[in-house]
Amino acid sequence: MGAVSLADVIAALGGDLHGASETQITRIGPLEGADAGTLSFLSNPRYQAQLAGSTAACVIVAPAFAEAAAARGAAIVTPDPYLYFARLTQWWAARVRPRPVAGIHPSAVIDPSAVIGADVSIGALAVIEAGVNIGDGAQIGPHCVVERNARIGAGSRLSARVTLGFDCQIGERCIVHAGVVIGADGFGFAPNQGQWEKIEQLGAVRIGNDVEIGANTCIDRGALEDTVLEDGVKLDNLIQIGHNVHVGAHTAMAGCAGVAGSARIGAHCTVGGGAIVLGHLSLVDHVHVSAATVVSRSIKQPGQYSGVFPFDDNASWEKNAATLRQLHTLRERLRALEKRGA
Amino acid sequence: MGAVSLADVIAALGGDLHGASETQITRIGPLEGADAGTLSFLSNPRYQAQLAGSTAACVIVAPAFAEAAAARGAAIVTPDPYLYFARLTQWWAARVRPRPVAGIHPSAVIDPSAVIGADVSIGALAVIEAGVNIGDGAQIGPHCVVERNARIGAGSRLSARVTLGFDCQIGERCIVHAGVVIGADGFGFAPNQGQWEKIEQLGAVRIGNDVEIGANTCIDRGALEDTVLEDGVKLDNLIQIGHNVHVGAHTAMAGCAGVAGSARIGAHCTVGGGAIVLGHLSLVDHVHVSAATVVSRSIKQPGQYSGVFPFDDNASWEKNAATLRQLHTLRERLRALEKRGA
Amino acid sequence: MGAVSLADVIAALGGDLHGASETQITRIGPLEGADAGTLSFLSNPRYQAQLAGSTAACVIVAPAFAEAAAARGAAIVTPDPYLYFARLTQWWAARVRPRPVAGIHPSAVIDPSAVIGADVSIGALAVIEAGVNIGDGAQIGPHCVVERNARIGAGSRLSARVTLGFDCQIGERCIVHAGVVIGADGFGFAPNQGQWEKIEQLGAVRIGNDVEIGANTCIDRGALEDTVLEDGVKLDNLIQIGHNVHVGAHTAMAGCAGVAGSARIGAHCTVGGGAIVLGHLSLVDHVHVSAATVVSRSIKQPGQYSGVFPFDDNASWEKNAATLRQLHTLRERLRALEKRGA
User: Fold this and answer.
1) To pair with A211 at 20 to 30 A between CA atoms, which of A62, C3, C35, C94?
2) Residue numbers in C near A212 (CB within 8 A)
3) Which CATH number is C236's domain given?
4) Could you tell me the pTM of the whole model?
């Protein structure tokens, strides 16, 4: 990964350059620890204090910080430095990371009935079953298993070891990380004299465009209808999406979150790490669930919702937790006192 | 998947048909959104209001709703509509989903010492190590790894990418979904001068008959004895079962639950999503743990147990959570007031 | 696995033997249920009562219990019986478990540019990409995917189906269990008019020596710098480690824990099962987080920290949880009473 000049950056991504366009950049990095080859950025005003002393070659800043940034070296001024930084990482990654050569590894096992688009790459030992359809330019990593009649849209990338279940589909430009399982059976059983009778899951999973799914996350197929992730949904690692769940467009969930069956989550929501949404609930658009919160009823108003026991040193927690188990009684005692005082 | 007639359904599954037996069914679906080809069901009286207006071809109902259902079209009357529905999905899936042809994919890597029963199917690129025994009619998905001396009972199905560790065994008619790891080492270490000395895990995993295990769930091998799942246990996705755990028959756990080492969970229990059972505890039969509850001591009486911070809008939660950290002090102040008043 | 004599054990592991050195041992097991071929141990004084009646062939004990143990049969006396037991399991496992024969399975797909050390074993259908470096004596399980330029230190063991991402590295003598994903993208996006713009993750993952990582655990690559696990870290199953996280030496985490991006956890810490550490926090060395606790701010003092809603029978929990939602108001009412009384 040879150096690039600031002129190259500006040519590719725009922005208003203050400073020498021939300055060479060897890495992208945070303000702290930046060296003379570092292109850095200031997006959170909290880190403003780090700006003046930074030895970064160049700093990407909003107009308000243009002067301060330029006073110490080169600067790229742009209305949204964090967005600029995101695009910079994309441009950088495209330069330094070799895209797999299109083509099918000879060790892949591909059913002759599969339809493979142009410029597709299929990694070593991948399995593509009958009736699969893979769009132009898609990349299927080594060891992926794409079951019968599944569809993958143009430009989508599956890392190593992804399972896409039969009849399931992924839209265009999606990114699916290693170990993801899409289309395992939903968890459905009818009780029968103390035992469980399996409800076969007859639906599938439908995933829109520009969706990203983190490592080892699971998205179950629907019981009767499909489980749906709309366009632009972003899921982190180790997330569980139950059967029949519907996740609205551009909603993002952090790692270890779980959504139980038939929950319906709106668009533009965020769900924090380890949070759980119980089944058969609805969350409207623009709901933000804090990490580790358990959503136990539907949410009808946008906003931030939380529910976590505040942590403490163990001794304090033990005392408060023990008292909590008598909280209802405490309220009764308080009431009694109030009555007496009245 | 061509249409079937109600006569076909009744012939296969029984029930008391009200209406024309030649009615054609093209799908199974919920009451809401049912069309003239839909076979629907009413199991939860909560949805009773949807019955009268439903345009479903036929509705499966309990005797109490026979009249109401028949008033609007065909009906199948049966004592337990949900159980009937479950069996209907099984019958339907068997009709519309091709069972893999028995036989071993040429790309599978199978040790010559493995004993493979009759009518077994082994998928592409599966690895079957030395001394493995696979019962009649079992289905091993593509990319499964079955380590040395593991045993799989007759009729069990492993989806793609399942790992069954050495010496571990699975009973008959089990279903194991993609990404499951059975028989990784339990988490055992002896402290040694600030470092950790590994305790090799010398046990294995024993799984009974009719067990289902969800995607990416992990079941560790025992330290000295075996980790055991009895018959009929149902585990959802992304569940962690620690070493030496014993799960009683017909117990079901929802996604993201975790059971720490040496816990003993009774039969006919349910564990909600994200719940955690700490180690070395015992739960008697018929214990039901609510979602996201942390079980921190043994439970000796059947019943429902819960422990979750109720979620709220963020501002309310913050106020209550802050107060919670002083709860013990509040109790002391209440006590002082009570004394003064006495 | 033929029997061994106590003399063999002492020769390998030391300790002070009381009793007949020719006594034959056929298994290692807990005091309870021990038979005449069992070598058992007493490490927790809580189980002292089981000692006298145990029919174990021999019991490993601390000096304080030497007399009691020898009174009932053979005993091995050692200052730290649990550590002795750990080493005994290692010695036992080495005897009874065949080490895979060094060599590369013919079905593995190995890029010619990979550098493979001496005595390495590579399992069936593993994929080793260009530029990979594997140290002497390492064992790569079947179906592993080691991406380009990744490095694996001498003596490390990867179970089946591990993914090690490009440019990531693992030190020496590490153990990585099945399904682990090291080096998936961290979860980073810039908001852009209601949508999410991907921040390419330009860092990697660096893992020290003697680290163990449980099944299906995920460790994301850093955004700009690397995600780091120092020497001796032990992670259980289904753990999520976000991008840029730094875990200090000899820290251990139990199953289902999650650490959000850019958190910094000290050395010699423990994190209980299901606990969550939020992002951008620092925990000093020797911090112990209880199971299911959510760490929402930095911790600057060593010690034990907890925060879990105490579980209860469902009816009691419901009453207390409902009251909890009015806790702040209760405090106000208490204050009012106190004022009135003053």
Assistant:
1) A62
2) 185, 198
3) 2.160.10.10
4) 0.97
